[in-house]
Amino acid sequence: MKKKMNYLVLLLTIIFMVGCTDVENVATTDKETDPQVAATENSDIKSEKEEAVAESVDDPEGEETSTAANEEEFPGYDILEVDGGDLSGSRQPNVVVDIGFGGREYWAFTNEYGQLVRAIADEITIQDDSTEPVTSSGRYYSDEAKVPGVERADLDEGHIIADSLGGVSNAYNITPQESTLNRHGDQAYMEKSIRDAGGATNLEAIITYPDTVTQIPSSYQYTYTLKGNEIVDTFDNVNPDEVNESLRLTGNKDSESESASSSINEGDLSSVDTNSNGQVTIAEAKAAGFTMPITSDHWLYQYMKDNDNDGIVGE
């Protein structure tokens, strides 16, 4: 009996020892495996960091590179994106905004007072209502920005670059413009000339104000190239009919026109060219009593700009 007990104790001891050995092996295996997993995880993290560093090297300044390029193109101005149909009448100071519809690039500039003072376009591409989304009235937008001043009955929401010439209708392309000037005066005539020519190049508009507060311009000057000829159009933001009336030269009757014209000797440019710049605008010719159009056989024609070169001015 005692001998059997000894064998039983010995057997239990062996089983216990074998069990301890297995536990140690498992523990040892786990300890050996953990560093491998950790190494793999560390390797993944390192790879991600290396990729991030590589991207940083490729574009070290990120968006700042684009900003720097913009500042180089328009030094002193921030480039601002504004929806073409934004009806807000407010503008930010010292910014430049793309006022061209679609893919056109027309740029408008404000001064430190938020006044729209300049617009440029390398090429004017006229509106194409067969391929572009226009309203039934032939416009890109149903309304224009409410720049302070346009609420006056005598002022229009006047485009610096007309929507018929590819301009948008936000505050960076709109100024309060005398309605007769905008619809029937030099502004309208200039726009028609560009449309009839199929576009223009190297356009620059300079807008002048009487003070630093108002948003209503006092005058406009447009310089552009039409069919190879450089044109400079300068006009005040006034009603040309009222100017003519103040000079008592608004009559449309032939007798009144003939009387006014007869008081000016043929070739007497100084009586018509009121600003003495050697050129006669439509407004100046009308103010002097001449009726439109002026044809190529008229002595005044040589001093006027026939933008479409058809031998007729003011048609």
TrEMBL record:
<keyword id="KW-0255">Endonuclease</keyword>
<keyword id="KW-0732">Signal</keyword>
<dbReference type="GO" id="GO:0004519">
    <property type="term" value="F:endonuclease activity"/>
</dbReference>
<dbReference type="InterPro" id="IPR044929">
    <property type="entry name" value="DNA/RNA_non-sp_Endonuclease_sf"/>
</dbReference>
<keyword id="KW-0378">Hydrolase</keyword>
<feature type="domain" description="Type VII secretion system protein EssD-like">
    <location>
        <begin position="153"/>
        <end position="221"/>
    </location>
</feature>
<feature type="compositionally biased region" description="Basic and acidic residues">
    <location>
        <begin position="43"/>
        <end position="52"/>
    </location>
</feature>
<feature type="region of interest" description="Disordered">
    <location>
        <begin position="248"/>
        <end position="275"/>
    </location>
</feature>
<feature type="signal peptide">
    <location>
        <begin position="1"/>
        <end position="23"/>
    </location>
</feature>
<keyword id="KW-0540">Nuclease</keyword>
<dbReference type="InterPro" id="IPR044927">
    <property type="entry name" value="Endonuclea_NS_2"/>
</dbReference>
<protein>
    <submittedName>
        <fullName>DNA/RNA non-specific endonuclease</fullName>
    </submittedName>
</protein>
<feature type="region of interest" description="Disordered">
    <location>
        <begin position="31"/>
        <end position="73"/>
    </location>
</feature>
<dbReference type="Pfam" id="PF13930">
    <property type="entry name" value="Endonuclea_NS_2"/>
</dbReference>
<feature type="compositionally biased region" description="Acidic residues">
    <location>
        <begin position="56"/>
        <end position="73"/>
    </location>
</feature>
